[in-house]
Structures are given as C-alpha cells and as structure tokens.
C-alpha cells in the first residue's frame, strides 16, 4: 500500500517558488525588525540564513525532505539548522495561507513579463516575414473558400494584432496579481503592528489587499491568467492550422525549414509540420488547466481550503507550455519560405474578383443588390462553360449588363487590393503603414513587459 502521507506532499513541484518564497521572507523579516516586533539582530541572522539557503537551492546543494510537505517547511527546517531557535521568530505575524499567496503572485508576475517578451518575439518574426514579402498578393479566405485578394503582409499583421490583444490581457492580469496579501494571516489579519505597505514596496507590489478573508482565498488572478493563456494558445493554434495547410502540397504556399519538420518512419518523401501540429495539440492542455482551476474554485467556502494546493501544477504547466511554444514559434516563422509565384498566381482565380466586378457596376449607377445578382449570373455562366472572368468576351459581359465595357478588364488582383485603402484595409500603402506601426510598437523593446 502506498504511503498515504505522500498524498498531501507538494514539495516536488512547489520548490520552484523558492526565489519568491525567500524574497517574501526576507522582506517580512526586515519589516518585523523595523516595527520592533523582533530584535534587529535576530532579523539580520534570519536574513543571512535565508540568503544562504537561497544559494544552496540555486546550486543544487539543498536537500529537500518530502516528509515536511511543502517548500515553506523545508526552508524553515533548514533555517533552524543554520541559526537555531531564532528561526522561529520569522513566522511571527504571518500564516502559510498568506505566504503561499504572495509567492504565487510574485511568480506569476515574473512569468507574465517573460511570456509577454516571448509574444513580442513572435510578433517580430511575423512583421519581418510580412516585410520580406510585402508586395505579394495572396488569396484571402472565408469558409476556407477563396474570397478576395489580400496582401500576404496584411495576413501576417492579422496575427500580430491578435497577439497584441493577448499582451493587453496579460498586462491586465499582471495588474490584478500585483496586490500584496501578506499581513492577512490565516484569514483574519494579524495582532501585530505590521507595516504591509513597507513589505509591498520591498517586494514591488503596487498595493495591498483590502480584505484578509478574500486575500488568502482569492485565486481570481490565476483564473484570469489561465483564461488569457487559453486565448493566446487559441491564436497560436489558428496560426498553426494555416501553417499546416499552407505547407501541404494541396496549397503549396510555404515551406518550413528542416529543423521544424520531421520525416515519416515509413514514407521517405514526407516532411511533416510536427512543431505546428504539437502547438495546435498543446492548446488542449492549456484549456484543461483553465477548467481545472475553475473546478477547484467553484465550491470553496471562505476562506482557505487545502483544495488550493492543486492550483500550482496546472499553473506551472501552462507557463512552461506557453513559454516553449512561443520560443518555437518565433524561430519557426523566421524560417518560413513563401512561394510567391504560386501564391500570386491564385490571387485572381476562382472568381476572387467578383466583388470588384459588383463594385465596378455600382460606380456606373447599378444598385449594389442588382449588381450582386448580375455578377453572380456571370460567375455561374463561367462555371458552366469552364472559363474565367478575365477570359469572358466583352460581348458576353454586355449580355448580362450594358454597364460593362472594355474597362472591365482593368480589374485585377492588384487593382483589387489597391482599391481597399480604408484604414485597416489591404491596400499596399495601408499595409506598409501597418508594418511601420507594428514595428513602432515592438521598438518599445523586449523586456519592458
């Protein structure tokens, strides 16, 4: 029979919070001495001991004891070994309930900053790729059917702006995680004259929590992070789907560098887009982690319950999965080769200029709904006779509407994209401005959060 004591142990995964846990303890020890709750000499000993423990963990010398359940008790045990009974003063005016909350908040804030940097690197690869092929016109799709011509760079900028919204959501999450719970105690606050604002300043929190009961049981900031992470991975998954489709022989739009494809164990000709497929697949586990934390929280009465121990593994998995996915994606997109001739050759096929034909008639006074019906009839005729719009004789055009003349042949993929010069449209000047705008956003710099 398995040792039932292992059921409650979290040391094997919460030890990755050691930097935040020790930083929180050092700030707490400083505050206790500053408020004359403990002697300054004791505070100094505690801080020196904690600093040594941090070095031991970083170097791998620290011995973790699973019988002590969690990171807090392991560090406290080692502190007693180093400085003796003075270590017992550190826990004055705090509980493991508010201690773990500050650890997770600090860890998440750091993770969000790193993830935002990773998103910016993916955005940079998209802007570079769009700039490299800025004049290439490609088919734009609705319902996975060719719809209207667009610039390839316009397509890349669509994903740039999706990712920009992800950054905004993550920054919102960072704002709400950036509140110090330490000083809330187990649930009711503490009976000491603690200076919570001092600790907040020491640890870089923008404010302190206003209600001790909410503080120790709140995991909304984790739910919000998992939600933002799920939307981010959904965007990556959509991009993956297009990378997969575009790199197939059926589309033949792009090729990926060899390091981001794998071969088949039986079919020697295959170059499978496994990295994009894995990114698409990993989206499911991120969704699962969101559902996990929502389910953990849905029935918890105030305040702290041990169920909350289960909030960490999903969090760590989400952070690790997103971090690695963004790292892969920024490199993979940098190596994309666009088959410009192939893409451009399709941009005026499959009646993709039909809307432009309708607009052509509108300019000549035909109401749009009527123009729509005329062009639909033209397209049906072309389908039945296996021809295309550019090959249809002017005499046949005029059978459908006398508003057609020889200028109808001036409608091309180039004229189509150029006509859409509304802000946000695919006209070349708008897309070039969009690339410049995106570059300006990125110039704010990786590392600025």
Molecular structure report:
This protein has 3 domains: 4-92, Fumarase/aspartase (N-terminal domain) (Fumarase C, Chain B, domain 1, Orthogonal Bundle); 97-345, Up-down Bundle (Fumarase C, Chain A, domain 2); 354-411, Ribonucleotide Reductase Protein R1, domain 1. 60% of the residues lie in helices and 5% in strands. It has helices spanning 11-14, 18-34, 40-59, 71-83, 96-132, 152-177, 196-203, 212-217, 220-246, 274-297, 312-334, 340-346, 354-363, 368-384, 394-400, 413-419, 428-442, and strands at residues 137-142, 145-151, 179-180, 207-208, 254-255, 337-338. Helix 2 packs across helix 7 and helix 5 packs antiparallel against helix 6. It is elongated, with a radius of gyration of 30 Å.
Characteristic terms for this protein:
Ribonucleotide Reductase Protein R1, domain 1, Fumarase C, Chain B, domain 1, 6 strands, 17 helices, two-stranded antiparallel ribbon, 60% helix, 449 residues, mainly alpha, Fumarase C, Chain A, domain 2, two-stranded parallel sheet
């Amino acid at each position: 029979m398995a040792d039932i004591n292992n059921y409650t142990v979290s040391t094997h995964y919460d030890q990755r919070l050691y930097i935040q846990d020790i930083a929180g303890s050092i700030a707490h020890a400083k505050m206790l001495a500053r408020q004359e709750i403990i002697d300054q000499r004791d505070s100094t000993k505690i801080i020196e001991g904690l600093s040594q423990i941090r070095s031991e963990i970083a170097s791998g010398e620290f011995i973790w004891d699973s019988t002590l359940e969690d990171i807090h008790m392991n560090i406290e045990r080692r502190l007693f070994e180093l400085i003796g009974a003075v270590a017992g003063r550190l826990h004055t005016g705090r509980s493991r309930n508010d201690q773990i909350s500050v650890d997770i908040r600090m860890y998440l804030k750091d993770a969000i900053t790193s993830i935002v940097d990773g998103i910016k690197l993916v955005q940079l690869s998209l802007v570079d790729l769009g700039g490299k092929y800025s004049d290439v016109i490609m088919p734009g799709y609705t319902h996975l059917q060719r719809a209207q011509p667009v610039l390839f760079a316009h397509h890349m900028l669509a994903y740039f702006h999706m990712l920009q919204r992800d950054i905004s959501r993550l920054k919102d999450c960072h704002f709400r995680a950036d509140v110090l719970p330490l000083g809330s105690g187990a649930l009711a606050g503490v009976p000491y004259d603690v200076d919570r604002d001092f600790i907040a300043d020491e640890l870089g929190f923008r404010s302190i929590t206003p209600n001790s009961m909410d503080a120790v049981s709140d995991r909304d900031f984790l739910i919000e992070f998992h939600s933002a992470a799920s939307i981010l991975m959904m965007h990556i998954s959509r991009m993956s789907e297009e990378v997969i489709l575009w790199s197939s022989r059926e589309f033949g739009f792009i090729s990926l560098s060899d390091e981001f494809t794998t071969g088949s164990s039986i079919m020697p000709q295959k170059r499978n887009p496994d990295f994009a497929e894995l990114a698409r697949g990993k989206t499911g586990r991120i969704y699962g982690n969101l559902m996990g934390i929502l389910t953990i929280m849905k029935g918890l009465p105030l305040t702290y319950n041990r169920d909350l121990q289960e909030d960490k593994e999903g969090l760590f998995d989400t952070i690790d999965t997103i971090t690695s996915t963004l790292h892969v994606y920024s490199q993979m997109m940098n190596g994309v080769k666009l088959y410009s001739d192939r893409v451009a050759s399709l941009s005026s096929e499959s009646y993709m200029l039909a809307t432009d034909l309708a607009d052509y008639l509108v300019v000549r006074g035909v109401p749009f709904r009527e123009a729509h019906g005329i062009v639909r009839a033209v397209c049906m005729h072309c389908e039945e006779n296996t021809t295309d719009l550019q090959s249809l004789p002017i005499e046949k055009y005029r059978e459908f509407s006398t508003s057609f003349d020889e200028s109808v042949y001036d409608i091309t993929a180039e004229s189509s994209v150029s006509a859409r010069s509304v802000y946000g449209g695919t006209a070349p000047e708008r897309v070039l401005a969009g690339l410049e705008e995106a570059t300006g956003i990125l110039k704010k710099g990786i590392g600025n959060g």
